[in-house]
Structure formats: C-alpha cells, structure tokens
Specification:
By secondary structure, the protein is an alpha/beta fold. The protein is built from 7 helices and 9 strands. The protein is 32% helix and 26% strand. The chain binds adenosine-5'-triphosphate (ATP) and magnesium ion. The site of magnesium ion has 3 residues, from helix 1.
C-alpha cells in the first residue's frame, strides 16, 4: 500500500513567556500512515491530541522532527513547506475537520458546502446539487439550505461543517472530535462517509470522544499519555 505520511521524531511544546517556562505537548512521536489507513489518537485531556493534528496541519510550528507528506506533486515536509505550498495542499489534499464551523456572514449553508467543489472548478449547478446531497445526508433540514449558518444551532453548524469538510475526497484527513454535538443520525452519516473515504484511499488521523463509533475503521492507535509514550518500544496496538 502506498505511504501517505511519514512522521519522524515529532516534538512540540509551548514556550510560556509569562511563566518563563516550556510546556512539552508531546515529544519524539513517529509513525507511518498508508493510503486508506485510519490512525486513532488517544490520551487524556491535555495529552496533546489536538496539538498533534494542528502541528501536522501547520497551524502550530513544531520544535523538531519531520512530517513527509507524499503529495501528488512529490514528497514535501509539512513542517517546513512554504506557506504558499501548504495553502495549496490544504485546498486539495489535506482536510481538517474540527468541531467548529467557520460560518461567514451572508453565505448560505449550501454555498458554504459547495465552495470546495467550486474551487475544484465544478460548475455551479453540479456543485449545488452535490452540496444539497451532503446537507441532506448529514440531516440538515431543507428549509435551512439557503439560510445563513451564523444563526444555526451548534449541532446544525457542525453538520454543515462536516458536509463541507467531507464533500471532496482528500488524500489525508485530520479529524478532531468531529462527532461532538452530533445526534445519532448525523453520527451514523459521518461514520458511513469516513468508511467510504477510507475505502477510496483517504488516510485519516482522528481523535474521537467515543471511539466505539469508529472501532471498525481503526487500523492503529497511538496513545499520547506520557506513561504510554515512555513505553514506546512496545509496538502500536493493532485492534
Ligand atoms: N496555543 C497554546 N499555547 C500554550 N499551550 C497550549 C496551546 N495549545 C495547547 N496547549 C497546551 O498543550 C497541551 C495539549 O493540549 P491539546 O489541546 O493538544 O490536548 P488534547 O489532548 O487535545 O486535550 P482534549 O482531550 O481536552 O481536547 C495542554 O496542556 C494545553 O494547555
Ligand atoms: Mg483536543
């Protein structure tokens, strides 16, 4: 199977200037991820799960290490890529799903969901049709499709967020507790979509509040709690 991501000795911490101290989030994390593989990150609150995803997405800068991403344009170290290259990858190859929708004033739900397709040069009518399909699949009621998500409930915003984030298959998908605030129907739709993307080759790294939801998708687990990290010579758990 083709490798998508090679992470070597990834270390991230935060310098707390006001405390004149350094807080280690995680250190020396290494793993490889192949196409279609699903890696679950686990660990208690504050173990560094979100920070690891943000470091790979380059929202945060790493202290040291390498994250070699095998993009369609060649191998690129996500930790050192130029901002412009990273912006391109985020548009076309690397997705990040959080619990939060970034709604924009006066942009309708269906326009927001269709946006990744429009950027990928889909025509307006097909993009709109596909956006509606995914809004429907995640259980956003039809009366809201043309409304502005800024006023939606938390769960409704999250459904729009998922439809937008998962509408286009990506090579690598980073998922930070995407099921938080979802009802059972939307959770099932999300898991079905993740299974479909996985079988089409998307590699995923995810944090799930209820990992049972995705148990059948998980190939490997990395535990970021410090005790587990100290015993790293033990191979990753295979479930
Ligand atoms: N921007 C930041 N500046 C300083 N410290 C930060 C920053 N972001 C995260 N941290 C710290 O890094 C540690 C790891 O945080 P992180 O959000 O990655 O935890 P998590 O495993 O995702 O926890 P949770 O299960 O609560 O979501 C925490 O102690 C947190 O306070
Ligand atoms: Mg987190």
């Amino acid at each position: 199977m083709s490798v998508v991501l090679e992470v070597q000795s990834l270390t991230k911490g935060f310098t707390m200037h006001h405390l004149n101290s350094y807080l280690a989030a995680f250190s020396d994390v290494s793993f490889d991820l192949n196409a279609g593989e699903f890696l679950l990150l686990k660990g208690h609150n504050g173990a560094g799960k979100s920070t690891l995803l943000r470091t790979l997405y380059r929202t945060y800068l790493a202290q040291s290490g390498q994250a070699l991403f095998h993009s369609q344009h060649g191998v690129i170290d996500l930790l050192r890529a130029a901002d412009v290259d990273l912006a391109l990858l985020r548009r076309s190859e690397i997705g990040f799903v959080t619990q939060f929708l970034v709604a924009r004033p006066r942009v309708s739900a269906e326009a927001l969901v269709a946006e990744p397709l429009r950027r990928a040069a889909w025509d307006t009518a097909s993009a709109q049709q596909e956006a509606r399909h995914w809004l429907q699949a995640f259980g956003v009621k039809q009366s809201l499709w043309r409304a502005y998500p800024t006023t939606f409930s938390g769960g409704e915003q999250q459904k729009v967020n998922l439809a937008r984030a998962l509408i286009l298959p990506q090579k690598l998908l980073l998922l930070d507790e995407p099921t938080a605030s979802l009802d059972a129907g939307a959770r099932a739709a999300l898991v079905a979509r993740l299974a479909e993307l996985k079988s089409n080759g998307t590699a995923m790294i995810g944090v799930f509040h209820h990992p049972d939801d995705v148990a059948h998708l998980i190939d490997r687990v990395i535990d970021l709690t410090p005790e587990a990290q100290q015993n790293k010579e033990v191979p990753d758990v295979v479930v």
